[in-house]
Amino acid sequence: MASMTLALDGVRVLDMTHVQSGPSATQLLAWLGADVVKVEAPGGDVTRRQLRDVPDADSLYFTMLNCNKRSITLNLKTERGREILTALVRGADVLVENFAPGAVDRMGFTWDRIREINPRIVYASIKGFGDGPYTNFKAYEVVAQAMGGSMATTGFEDGPPLATGAQIGDSGTGVHAVAAILAALLQRERTGRGQRVNVAMQHAVLNLCRVKLRDQQRLAHGPLAEYPNDDFTDDVPRSGNASGGGQPGWAVRCAPGGPNDYVYVIVQPVGWTPLAALIGRPELAEDPEWATPEARLPKLAKMFQLIEEWTATLPKWQVLEQLNRHNIPCGPILSPKEIIEDRSLADNDMIVEVAHPHRGTFTTVGNPLKLSDSPTTITTPPLLGQHNEDIYIGELGLSRSELPQLKEQGVI
């Protein structure tokens, strides 16, 4: 194969992010081919030491969000540290940060100052919230879920609001940030100018909850027939595993009844006749009480109960095989254990083994963005400050004798 350039070859990203929302974004940029330089305080990204499973080695929390990056240490509380950052900004295309609001400004790097150093730079910030009363709330994954509309609409009618296991606040915002950064780089091709990019976690979650705002407005015209709920107020209710969309669906239990022995089944109009036969109730295909979507809509709970009486007798993979044979839309509930062992996900480079100098091999999630001319090879995340010499001496031209001094002075 001819040597291939990657989509973002030649794009230098200064990664001043930590924890999850920022690192998830810069990792995607690295996988698209950018040279991502992670700028860490001398103590390192806090997640290197969080949720450790191997003593004295970087945690999975860190390694799974920081592949394909280089790491340098820099203390921005020192004068020399700020001088070095200025030199780094001068040579960068993108700077990404997710500090608390105003933190970068207080280091002396306002947008005006950054733009003065490098008018072509795209300066991207991930924050919890936009301007307003929430600006200084502390941003956490589930806080963003709570404030973006996700929690109020997740769970069962008679239960509390629920968080989703999907990190829609952190990693979800990271993907939105990548889209914005790429758009800004594309605009720079035309204008020659960089720009300021802001993405808030609350806003990203809200964007992912768009259909619930659709349903909020539909409520003005009466109850939502597609929801299995009986009682409606002026708020969109929690509707369990219903999609609330055009086709009713539900997670039905399978044998032997373990926590993830479920299949999600969707009942389309064309699927009712074969489904009625599969569940041993072929007469329901003709019965006017059941034959049409309109007739079934008020009885969704009863309908899925009938389906579950059949699925509960079979293992989920057998249920799937039979449903798929009749083109009935369905999917198994896959646990993290099943996903990590799933052959097809490994074959698609979505479950990937990565070697690490301190921990041995670990498993991570691969790049979901598949580009035919820009294939991703996932490489090991950097050790803390691993690339200080390469970047400070090799690229910024600092003298070899200055490095030990900087270390002694706590600058790196």
Automatic annotation (TrEMBL):
Its EC number is 2.8.3.16. It catalyses: formyl-CoA + oxalate = oxalyl-CoA + formate. Pathway: Metabolic intermediate degradation; oxalate degradation; CO(2) and formate from oxalate: step 1/2. Substrate binds at G245, G246, Q247. GO terms for biological process: oxalate catabolic process. Residues 224-248 are annotated as: Disordered. Keywords: Transferase. The active site is at D170 (nucleophile). Pfam families: CoA_transf_3 (PF02515). CoA binds at Q20, S21, N98, F99, A100, R106, K138, A139, Y140, E141. GO terms for molecular function: formyl-CoA transferase activity. Homodimer. PANTHER family: SUCCINATE--HYDROXYMETHYLGLUTARATE COA-TRANSFERASE. Involved in the catabolism of oxalate and in the adapatation to low pH via the induction of the oxalate-dependent acid tolerance response (ATR). Catalyzes the transfer of the CoA moiety from formyl-CoA to oxalate. Belongs to the CoA-transferase III family. Frc subfamily. HAMAP family: Formyl_CoA_transfer (MF_00742). This is Formyl-CoA:oxalate CoA-transferase. The gene is frc.
